Amino acid sequence: RLIEEETARRVEELVARRVEEELEKRRDEIEHEVLRRVEEAKRIMEAQLLQELERQRQAELNAQKTREEEEKSKREELERILEENNRKIADAQAKLAEDQLRIVEEQRKIHEERMKLEQERQKQQKEEQRMILGKGKSRPRLSFTLKATE
């Protein structure tokens, strides 16, 4: 049993030494493989990071484009409303101008009618005065003669 233990110990030592020697021989190879794998993992991570950054950039561009389109749509709607309001204002001003013109015309007609009536009244008054005063053959002449009585 002691021999078995001694043998197992020696075998373990031998295996450990051989593993150590093998590791020492292949150390550069292993380090190179580890570095290669690290570099590959790094490249993969960089590629994933670049893809994520590109995806985020595209998402931001899309969001900005959407915002610009919404702003453009709102601006066009406001411009349409402004044009409609300006048209309504112009229509209202035209109607007001027409109404004012009509009122001025009516006032002019009333004034002319008033002046015409005033002239008629004055003419009639002069005619009445002429009749009363007997001017201009408005009534026949009366002739008076005095006869002597005997």
From TrEMBL:
Q: Where is the composition biased (Basic and acidic residues)?
A: 114-130
Q: Which residues does the annotated region (Disordered) include? A: 114-150
Please list the GO terms describing molecular function.
cadherin binding
Classification via Pfam families: ARGLU
Q: Which GO terms describe its cellular component?
A: mitochondrion; nucleoplasm
InterPro entries per the UniProt record, alphabetical: ARGLU1
What's the family?
Answer: Belongs to the ARGLU1 family.
Recorded protein name is Arginine and glutamate-rich protein 1-A-like
Q: Which organism is it from?
A: Sinocyclocheilus grahami (Dianchi golden-line fish)
